[in-house]
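Q: Second attempt. The first request was missing the SMILES, so the protein and pyridoxal-5'-phosphate are both included now.
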Amino acid sequence: MSMINETFADAVGYVYLDGEFYNLYDREANPSLANHSLHYGGLVFEGERAYEGRIFRSEDHSKRLVRSAELAKTPAPGVTVDIIEKAKYDLLEKNGFKNAYLRAFIFRGPGLGVKAGKDIQTHFAVVAKPASVYWPDHILENGLRLHTVDTRKISHHSIKQTSKASANYQASQIASYSAMEMGYDDALMYDPKGKYIVELPVANPFFIKDEVLYTPKTAKDFDKTPFLPGITRDTIINIVAPKLGLTVVEKHIALSDVLHADEAFSVGSATEVTPIAEINNTAYLMNDIPPSDIYNFRRSGPVTHKVMQAYAEHVRSPVVV
Ligand SMILES: Cc1ncc(COP(=O)(O)O)c(C=O)c1O
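A: Got both inputs this time. The predicted holo structure:
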């Protein structure tokens, strides 16, 4: 039995590590059991999609990876945006993948003892797998059923939420798991003070009222933002919504605002635009939508459907990099 995340079991072919290509299961490509990041969570990563051989906003993801490494104090000297870009595209080519999901990540080598300092070597790796449908069938059919949970986002005083640091995902995992134990598909998380709704475990939310889109706002001092302001969120705000003539308002959002919305959806590189059917048992507008080659959902609110369609077209556009 493999000890590697089984969602990458179909990443047959090659993986990239520190300038070399290996098979996913090669001994040299797998961290030691004394790996520092495995024990203490000091790994930073990106999740991104390639559409017809073009990685959507690839450079933005690579820049965020470098920045996450700095914020999480896992500096990786020599791992530049150019090196990350080349590794990602070389890996796609080597595997012959055109539509794929990629994970680029920086992590520490062996070392037991939390004080990593600069002595422990850092590594840079990329794994990829052919693109697959993210959600199970019942969510494609009905949309997401979410519930708020006790587990809040970690404070920026501890770990910057603007860094895509694996340690942040311990809270995300517990939140998701708790919501599933309660019989829902996933969680909706509060900020560290428990005042505002900020995000899903791995995606940013949008709420629609009277055809206006609302989404949690970033802090003035960006790295104090209590959630990860994603690249997909940015694409919706700055490209998709203007194209559709929709207004977006970034504001603090309380649960009462959420429960008075007409529609809701979540966004992320992996999950793309996902209709939300209900939050805390309050149902949103959901209609049957026509089948499509570029999205997999079968029901959605009417404005969400327009956003889903426009996003799916945008990421596949040959002029987009
Ligand atoms: C916590 C969290 N928020 C938001 C997002 C969406 O970010 P992006 O659109 O950059 O993928 C992700 C994506 O993985 C995430 O993990």
